[in-house]
Amino acid sequence: MHEERGGVLGLFGGTFDPLHVAHLRLAIEAREALGLAEVCFIPAGRPALRDAPQCAAVHRLAMVERALADLPGFSVDAAEVLDPAGRPSYTVETLERQRLLHGAQRPLVLLLGADAFARFEAWHRWRELFGLAHIAVATRAGHELKVGAGNTALDREFAARQGDAADLAGASAGRIVCFAITALEISATAIRRRLALGLGVRYLVADAVLDYIDSHQLYRTSHGH
Question: Where are the domains of the chain?
Fold first, then answer.
């Protein structure tokens, strides 16, 4: 259940293998900077553009649910993890499903990191995304957004659609907005590596996530399941 049916809704998809504090900070700071009513985390069942996650989807979903349990204004959409067909998770299909859930008028904002946005043209049916949601790109100090200066198709879309947070509530989709976040050099890859070596990850992940990892012995061996 979403807490409220109105207002600008942020959508944050990812593998979350595992969810870590940089993911949480991005969502919190996006909500503040962009005036979002809520942020919905959408764990991918089978990511389409990357290697298979190390950890089973049900565990990745459980870690997200536990991390968000006590955070008002955040929710989880489990549909892709629970998809019985196990289809690849394409963002355009995720957004089409969100549109059916929330209607044609509610502003939806897809939250992305700058690295992901720079690869946007490789995404399945990427041009259609602008008709389904706004795009908000998280930028970090010292990491210049390398989009907009050239003459690629994405550069042209960026130049035509760039706006600011105040534009998001006025339309359901179509704008590209950048927002600054605290630079946290934390990666799921590095966390998995530390866990495989038996090293600690406290304060890199939420306590509830760490408890879940420990209780299920996730990432401790090459199997990760």
Answer: 9-182
Q: Which is nearest to 137 in space by CA: 145, 128, 126? A: 145
Q: Which residues contact 151 (CB under 8 A, 6 or more apart)?
A: none
Instruction: Tell me which CATH code domain 9-182 carries.
Output: 3.40.50.620
**Sequential DSSP letters for 32-97:** HHHT-SEEEEEE-SEESSSPPPSS-HHHHHHHHHHHHTT-TTEEE--TTTS-TT--EE-HHHHHHH
Instruction: Check pLDDT > 50 for residue 225.
Output: no
Q: Tell the burial category of 175 from Cβ atoms under 10 Å away from its Cβ (0-12, 13-18, 19+).
A: buried
Single-letter code of the amino acid located at 20:
H
Tens of pLDDT, residue by residue over 25-41, are: 999 999 999 999 999 99
Cα angle, residue 188 at apex, residues 197 and 24 outer, rounded to 5°: 130
